[in-house]
Amino acid sequence: GRETRLRVVLRVRPLTCTETRRGDQRVVHSLGDGTVHVSAARHNATFGFSAVFDAGASQETVFEGSGMRQLVELAIDGFSCTVFAFGQTGSGKTYTLMGPLTQGETQPAAPGLLGLMQRSFACLLEQSRSCGSDLVLSASYLEIYNEQVRDLLSPGPPCALPLRWSKTRGFYVENQLNVDFESLETIANLLQQGSQRRRTSAHALNRHSSRSHALLTIHIRSRAVSTYLAPLGEGACGAGAICGGENSTYPSKQGTLCFVDLAGSERVKETGSSGELSVEANNINRSLLALGHCISVLAKPRGKRTHIPYRDSKLTRLLAHSLGGSGITLMIACISPSSRCLSETLSTLHYASRARRVTSRP
């Protein structure tokens, strides 16, 4: 119940071959100790975060340094945990969460390139085998495309699902499919299956641009064997010993671990989008603007907050519990160091800085 700030980390991707050939300058420099400096004409600013991962940081370094392992453990303990990546299109969000886009059943990714999702799945299953409690694991996977919520695991063509509200559950998706899993192979296949159905397109800045926001949620239910204090002289445990009670259990704990891969913010002028791509871009930017507005209000001291406009978009409704409720949230801001992307990079850095002031009560 103690007030906790959102943990915000920054990842700076390397310059691409195209950017290097074009002669783009690197304008973002890591200073160490969680700070970055932006140096360009008329722009000279320093930003601080919980951690900063520069272009040379490995996927393993990001997993351990971001606190992702602790988030998995908290989810097992019954907390609602969320991690989401945001930033400009092509800034490395999907790579950070999932690893290379070329991986599949016939071409698995090298272990060192696996993203936060696969590493978290492995950590979760490892913990479930060692913690001595029975864990029941299931997964759901959906996308928000053009303000429609669509299930990525249900068979058949994706169809829009209704988003409901209840006093006990908050905002939830009706008729969403939950699939049980017990092995790393099963959940990896579910991730691959859902990701292949997600809407992507190519434009000037990104050959595999996500055209939807994707939310993969792991539901964790645990039922641990209880203990009781044995009376003096009872059984072989001795006086005051802790013994297992027969057929009695603690109330089951229910935690969640939600991964949110936000579609990238984009400027139509830069991406060259037109027609359907332009409509998608407008919907993406509108929902990200609604998310930014919610974060701006939540960043104010509790006594000065006005109405928080969660209902302005499907995305903010589904993230309401994570942002301002009783959940624990990790935000990963992804940026390009290129001088050509300076405007979007500064926008992401300011966005992330505001998010650091948001608090929740886990």
TrEMBL record:
SUPFAM superfamilies: P-loop containing nucleoside triphosphate hydrolases (SSF52540). InterPro entries: Kinesin-like_fam (IPR027640), Kinesin_motor_CS (IPR019821), Kinesin_motor_dom (IPR001752), Kinesin_motor_dom_sf (IPR036961), P-loop_NTPase (IPR027417). It holds the Pfam family Kinesin. ATP binds at residues 87-94. It is found in: Cytoplasm, Cytoskeleton. GO terms for cellular component: microtubule; microtubule associated complex. Keywords: ATP-binding, Cytoplasm, Cytoskeleton, Microtubule, Motor protein, Nucleotide-binding. The keyword Electron transport does not apply. Residues 5-358 form the Kinesin motor domain. One of its GO terms (biological process) is mitotic spindle organization. Its main location: cytoplasm. GO terms for molecular function: ATP binding; microtubule binding; microtubule motor activity. Belongs to the TRAFAC class myosin-kinesin ATPase superfamily. Kinesin family. This is Kinesin-like protein.
